[in-house]
Amino acid sequence: MRGTDYVFEPGLPAGIPVAGTRKLFPVHRVYCVGRNYAAHAVEMGHDPDKEPPFFFQKNPDNLVADGRFPYPPASSDVHHEIEMLVALKSGGRDIPAEKALDCVYGYGVALDMTRRDLQAKAKEQGRPWEVAKAFEASAPCSPLVAATAIGHPAAGAIWLDVNGKRRQSGDLNQMIWKVPEMISYLSGLFTLMPGDVILSGTPAGVGAVERGDRLRGHIDGIGDIEVDVV
């Protein structure tokens, strides 16, 4: 707020690089859709045919684009989850699905890194997932590419290699809830804003990483991500 004296100088907003420019996309909130690929839902012990979409959140500054993932404390079982990132340039409430893509600025490749052992404990105790999902640097991502340049990918390969071996493989057309449906559903729960980011779910094959691993992910039509676990 102009003219406001803060008790200390506020930090800069979190941002994601935009490919081919010196600009940053300012991040407002990060929403993650859970179990959005049927095969992944099954591998996690759930029936995808019986569940409406559900969401959890990460923090804006969990998004990092420096190619490094510091292995976090308090866990010995950290898993990779490759996902398409959807970045919004506008928002609102109760957005119709047929208008939802008008809100999208662009897309990226992201990893939803998860402290699986802490998540399992939280599930057992009926507690929130933040300790498992919203820790520092838990969302490595690629630079964004604008929808004006690539359109709105609805199909295409999504995969992740760990040390050159394929771990996850799927297709964007396998998402249970498509991007317009995600945006529309979320806007019935929250007032979506410019700068909001959605991580759209992961295909099957999630697994543990170790210090020294190199992760390489790809989504057709969007790009690649390379991350070193340090």
Automatic annotation (TrEMBL):
It comes from the Bacteria. Signal peptide: none annotated. One of its GO terms (molecular function) is hydrolase activity. Coiled coil: none annotated. InterPro entries: Fumarylacetoacetase-like_C (IPR011234), Fumarylacetoacetase_C_sf (IPR036663). Keywords: Hydrolase, Metal-binding. The keyword Metal-binding applies. Residues 30-230 form the Fumarylacetoacetase-like C-terminal domain. It holds the Pfam family FAA_hydrolase. The keyword Transmembrane does not apply. PANTHER family: ACYLPYRUVASE, FLUTATHIONE S-TRANSFERASE. This is Fumarylacetoacetate hydrolase family protein.
